[in-house]
Amino acid sequence: MSAKPKTIPHKPKAGGKIFKEEIGKEWDTSPARNYINGLLTNLNEFTAFDITIYKNQTLNSFAAFCQKGDDIDKLEDYLIANNISDFEIAFGLWGIVLGFADMPKTLTDDFFNGDGNNYISNIYMYIHKQVHGVELDGNIKVRKDINTIYEKLEESFYTIDNNKQQRREECPPSGNSTSILEKELSSFSEYNKLDSKVKRNFIEELHNVAILSLEDWDEGKVDSIKWKSKKGQITLIKAVKNNKKSTKSNEKPSSKMTKSIKEPALPFYFYSDKSAWSNIKHLVPIENNEAVKRDIDWFQNEYLKGNDSQYYAKASRSNKSVIESYERHL
């Protein structure tokens, strides 16, 4: 199978010298010589080259790496297309030359996180034996960090999703049925003063920003709504805000109780952690990645503004408070 040359400069020639040294005196009459020369010509002059013309796992893997080693995914596809089922040598060359740190997690997760897989243990024990001459026995156990900020976030994501789904199921999609939000707002005189059309539009706009009940109330989302005409909505919003503040004030624990609650020490703050998104990305459906990342960036930037923040100027910066705030924001 012919292939166009790709960009691993100088490596084929250097590799050829290694093969020559290993084969020794038999190199001149060895099929490996013609194979390596054909590979070099292919890479330098764009000539046709059949990677499987000489059946040798090491040489075939080396040739595949030289041709497609600039991209790990293309390398894998190329190996499969040429019926080379053992990726070990080709991927090993890729790791040595380009670095395992660039390997996508889809390729390394099975090695490092698989149940019953002793990949890391075997590597460590092999290196230890080579360096110290002592053969180790047993496996390296993966330590699970308890109470990390991201475990809390993961738990929060699932709890929030389940609660919102439940409220959506409880919330009638159409018709004359009364939604949870309508029932709650009917306790406000400011809401009851609105005419039916304005009431309906008010509820629809809040539903559009995922506010299905007063428990979901988020001032940032509410303030982002552009009302086509103002016929009492602003007055109602102020009344709800005042009610929420009053309720929150009544629920505040005493200062003594607050001081007795100790937060687990963490080496960073969520609102300023630049790796926050990368740590929770796997919890978010792919189609929502862009929206959630943009939401997290906005949320963190608001907290970083300190006293200049429009929404969180006086909010506590402790991880516990920030995470709870982020839950409400969601």
The secondary structure category is mainly alpha
Q: Classify the helix fraction into a percent range.
A: 55-70%
Number of helices: 17
Number of strands: 0
Task: Give the percentage of residues in beta strands.
Answer: under 5%
What is the overall shape? elongated
Span of the ends, CA to CA = 53 Å
Would you write up a description of this structure?
The chain is mainly α. It has a domain at 11-103. The protein contains 17 helices and no strands. The model is unreliable at 1-7, 172-176 and 253-267 (pLDDT under 50).
Q: What is shown here, in short?
A:
This protein is mainly α.
Map the helices and strands:
Elements: H1 11-23, H2 31-45, H3 57-68, H4 72-81, H5 88-98, H6 105-113, H7 119-132, H8 149-170, H9 180-185, H10 189-192, H11 196-208, H12 219-223, H13 233-251, H14 255-260, H15 276-280, H16 289-304, H17 319-329
Helix pairs in contact: 1-2, 2-3, 3-4, 3-5
Keywords:
mainly alpha, 330 residues, 58% helix, elongated, single chain
